[in-house]
Amino acid sequence: MTDDLTLYTNPRSRGRIARWMLEESGASYDTVVLDYGTTMVAPAYRAINPMMKVPAIVHRGQVVTETAAICAYLADAFPDAGLAPLPAERADYYRWLFFAAGPLEAAITNRAMGVTPTVEQQRMAGYGDFDRAVAVIGDAVARHSYIAGDRFTAADVYLGSQLMWFTQFGLLPKTEPVMAYIGRLSERPAHARATALDDERVEEGAV
User: 20 to 30 Å CA-CA from 86: which of 118, 124, 151, 163?
Assistant: First the structure.
């Protein structure tokens, strides 16, 4: 018996973030693993996400794409998990959730692709420049145990996953505050369950 909830994913994608969030939420869900060159670009999936990207979820007939949106949606849809922000946490929760999804990812993606904005272009780029964005997030994770305070929330699933990925592949400096933050998140049982599920899919040959 599921919560009428389906995750569309690939274990070599940001779908890992959505799975971790689902495991944290306590929701029961079905999984559809898509291949990049076939099922992910097929008409059946295009009807769910015209961008032909994963992850996506369908919950009781409603489609949610964009990984940060999925995290926020699931926090609200399954309130008993306690992953949505309390009133005092909302400012930092939304601020850093959207910072991670916007300026931080853009800064790191551009750096990985060899794009360095000029001083003039920095005014157009939401992140300004790479070093600034990295310094800002380093300061943010050093302030509290978790990004919105002393309590784990959905924002930590998203931001933490991004930082884990970026540091693993050498796209973000492994500073002490960032690595300490990652260490706290890596100890969560739901993270271990989600990682094991996706690693199993990789071993089975899902691409």
Answer: 163
